[in-house]
UniProtKB/TrEMBL annotation:
Keyword Cell inner membrane: no
Annotated transmembrane regions: 6-25, 66-88, 100-120, 132-151, 172-191, 197-217, 229-248, 260-283, 290-314
Pfam families for this protein: Sbt_1
Protein's name in the database: Unannotated protein
Record organism: freshwater metagenome
Keywords: Membrane, Transmembrane, Transmembrane helix
PANTHER family in alphabetical order: SLR1512 PROTEIN (PTHR40400:SF1)
UniProt KW Membrane keyword: yes
């Protein structure tokens, strides 16, 4: 399947169309809104479900199979925020805002990853189950590196204890890691009892979740004026660069074509759940209007519509050249 076909397949998927519907609802000033309790329940479902599936797969994966991808993922979590921080020198942003953005782009987007997995599975491409575990691993180091890079631009000491506590006990990390532990302990036999709930309903819950995110992103569009052209360029080009590095890492560490594409989707995504909470606490000097506009208003829609099929195309290319 060529690049155009991949893009069209992704654009016409229910989750992406639901996101577009949410954008339209905001543009038309519709009173459509998911109750906050429903939104929170959907996010808990997605986070816990992905964690449990990753844990089950991890329990069935030998150490030899996962060690290379795991080390590669940790390396990505260190390298990507450093690249982002120094590329942002070409914008007019100060060091705290560059560090905040590095933390967001070094971390990951659960929903981008989930939409990517649904897209790959719609093409009958099977991803290694332990990739869900790599999601939990990649979530943390990028935030830490971003905050460390920002530290030299502030005149006070960052409260690392509070920051680590916010990162590790925040909803996304807690549920992902907790789900991995649950899945690992219960194994495939235990998971079979809840498979219908976490597999059969997954795509539908994601569609509903993206409807709400479309409305949230639509409300952020007005903040793009504050972001500036340089940040818009960064938000649409850096995901391809970081994602391609992720795909290459996947191939070099022995992952399948689809698994490497999934790692690229992870590497090219930007956090808008875990990172904002940590950055808000550790870097009050950084502007939420900048880092949320970039991650949620620019990069998330770009990845959802274009970035995901591009990562598969890059993985197909690398597979063809023998990597």
């Amino acid at each position: 399947m060529d690049g155009l076909q991949l893009a069209l397949t992704n654009l016409t998927s229910p989750p992406v169309l639901a996101f577009a519907l949410g954008l339209l609802a905001t543009a038309l000033r519709s009173d459509l809104k998911l109750p906050d309790a429903v939104y929170q329940a959907l996010s808990i479902y997605l986070l816990l479900g992905i964690g449990i599936k990753g844990g089950v797969a991890l329990s069935e994966t030998s150490f030899d199979q996962i060690i290379a991808p795991l080390l590669g993922t940790i390396a990505l979590g260190i390298v990507i925020p450093i690249i982002a921080f120094y590329l942002l020198r070409f914008t007019k942003l100060d060091i705290p805002n560059r560090g905040a953005l590095a933390a967001h782009y070094g971390s990951t987007s659960l929903v981008t990853f989930t939409a990517g997995i649904v897209f790959l599975e719609s093409l009958s491409l099977q991803v290694e189950g332990y990739v869900n575990t790599l999601l939990a691993v990649l979530e943390i180091p990028g935030i830490i590196i971003g905050l460390a890079l920002a530290a030299k631009g502030v005149s006070r000491n960052i409260s690392w204890g509070d920051s680590f506590r916010e990162i590790l006990t925040g909803k996304s990390i807690f549920l992902l890691v907790g789900g991995v532990v649950l899945g690992f302990l219960t194994g495939s036999a235990g998971y079979a009892r809840i498979d219908d709930f976490f597999t059969g309903l997954f795509a539908g819950v994601l569609t509903l979740f993206l409807l709400e995110l479309g409305m949230v992103a639509g409300r952020r569009i007005k903040d793009l004026k504050q972001a500036g052209v340089g940040l818009i360029v960064f938000g649409t080009t850096f995901p391809i660069l970081a994602g391609s590095i992720g795909v290459l890492t996947g191939h070099l560490t022995g992952m399948s074509l689809a698994g490497a594409a999934a790692l690229g989707i992870l590497a090219g995504s930007a956090s808008y759940i875990a990172a904002p909470a940590a950055v808000r606490l550790a870097l009050p000097e950084a502007s939420p209007g900048i880092y949320l506009s970039a991650s949620l208003g620019i990069t998330f829609p770009f990845n959802l519509t274009i970035g995901i099929p591009v990562m598969l195309a890059v993985s197909q290319f690398l597979e063809g050249v023998g990597l």
